[in-house]
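Notes from hallway chat w/ T.B., transcribed later so I don't forget. T.B. wanted the structure written out for a chain they're using in a teaching module, and asked if we could keep both sequence and structure tokens in one place. Agreed to drop them here.
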Amino acid sequence: NYVIFPCKEAISPYETFFKEIDFDYSKLRYVLTGVEPLLYNLDKDEFCKKNDIPLNKKIISYIGRKNKIKGFDKFLDLVKRFENREDILFICAGVGMDTPDFKNLVDFGWTNDPGSIINASDFVLVPNRDTYFDINMIQILSIGTPVITTPTGGNRWFLDKENLNMFFFEDEEQLDTLIN
């Protein structure tokens, strides 16, 4: 019997468990994950008009589960640091942790159309603390929106890939530089 992962880098969330059970790593096999391109209902102009978002704002979004392992708290810290920047608007969508009120943040909660948010964004932030191999990441890339992410878990698979419009950060200073 074998255990299948999408890539070697996706093992990291399971390494402690594998050590506890003295896992035989020769039983690992890899089948890279793929998805159909994510569709969207509204182009950027339509999305901004429908949601009263000025077209001259830089839109940075977070889409997905709002929890600590996915880095939602890092997203909120970024929103707070840039709260007085009139040229930037942050958007989030998903469920989980409560979203505080910030003047520069719009929370869509659960959505059946994450593609329109991603397509309207100038960047999507994926600030994982650890990760398997997120379908979210592949869907964002399928639309062509630039991604700002952390070099953790399955995200590391992308490190040596070219022309992906993907940017990595390890700390607040690097993230702030990418946003500016």
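Follow-up for T.B.: Strands lie at 3-5, 28-30, 58-63, 88-93, 105-107, 123-126, 147-149, 166-168. Might be a good example for the class.
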